[in-house]
Design a protein that fits this description.
The longest helix has 21 residues. The chain is of the alpha/beta class and 312 residues long.
């Protein structure tokens, strides 16, 4: 297949690119490299089946000819993060909504039959977990709201122009290549803190629940979706809920390390219980996660140890 992958140098996107290249697909990556890193795709790049275009998805006019002859667009490029979006709502909306719309316009113009949107379980907001695709989105952050808007544009282009749009709502994805910063998710934060003997901050009492899914399982779900002729919305995770306190127990045993804990107030914009049913993805996409939480954490810890050693 001939694929365009936006954000293909980023966290999830680069794992998808690795998988697509292993299947002998040809991939054009569009990435502005603000969050992505060329090093994430260096192993696959040597195959010669990747073209990397450094470009913003909101400004595609000069590269629109690249969309000719493409079988599917897989759209990972986005501003992500619930907490950061509270401070940068206009920027999140501009990238996540307008960027998606411009890609859909090119799919219409060049008659690209398949579009896959990387969305998020955050769209469910304060719905009662486990989340199902039949629930009406109830976003409680600008990030989630921008993804709902992007989803709605996908649905409209599917209904009106016949583009097969697959919307994948990821739960909490973790694994190698995850960017780290003040808004990083809990697993990279906690693993790095443990390896550096630093304290961790727990917002609330630690009983909040999430579905932590390994990035390689998510990449596989994305690949399954481009081979499927359906349009629709699918939750992608493990289908299992894990409390933050239990996650800490697993990390303390696996690393091993005893965390120094700091407690703070629960943060606005985050749902306390956020995990999803994946029954539809199992039955219709033939998606089945391969990595247990323990297996994924073990592999990720080894990766972070290597990263730490390389900087010493």
């Amino acid at each position: 297949m001939n694929l365009i992958v936006t954000g293909g140098c980023g966290f999830i996107g680069s794992h998808f690119v690795d998988l697509a290249i292993s299947k002998n697909d040809k991939v054009i990556i569009i990435d502005n490299l603000l969050a992505g890193n060329k090093e994430n795709i260096e192993n696959s790049f040597s195959t010669g089946n990747i073209e990397l275009i450094q470009n913003d998805i909101r400004n595609l006019d000069l590269i629109k000819s690249k969309f000719s002859g493409i079988d599917a667009v897989i759209h990972f490029a986005a501003r992500t993060g619930v907490i950061e979006s509270l401070e940068k709502s206009v920027e999140f909306t501009d990238v996540n909504v307008l960027g998606t719309l411009k890609l859909l316009e090119l799919c219409k113009e060049f008659k690209i039959p398949k579009f896959v949107l990387a969305s998020t379980g955050a769209v469910y907001g304060n719905n009662k977990a486990p989340f199902t695709e039949a629930m009406i989105p109830d976003p409680i952050s600008p990030y989630a709201a921008s993804k709902v808007a992007a989803e709605n544009f996908c649905k409209s282009y599917s209904n009106t122009f016949g583009i097969q749009c697959m919307i994948l709502r990821f739960t909490n994805v973790f694994g190698p290549r995850k960017s780290f910063g003040p808004y990083a998710n809990v697993i990279p934060k906690f693993v790095r803190a443990a390896l550096r003997n630093e304290s961790i901050t727990i917002f609330g009492n630690g009983d909040q629940e999430r579905d932590f899914v390994y990035v390689k399982d998510v990449a596989n779900a994305c690949y399954q979706s481009i081979k499927n002729t359906k349009s629709g919305v699918y939750n992608i995770g493990t289908g299992k809920n894990t409390s933050l306190n239990y996650l800490i127990e697993i990390l303390e045993k696996t690393i091993p390390h005893k965390f120094k804990k700091i407690n703070d107030n629960f943060r606005d914009g985050e749902a306390k219980y956020a995990y999803s049913s994946i029954e539809n993805a199992k039955s219709e996409l033939h998606y089945s996660p391969k990595f247990s939480l323990q297996e994924g954490i073990q592999e990720y810890i080894e990766y972070e140890k290597t990263q730490l050693e390389s900087t010493c």
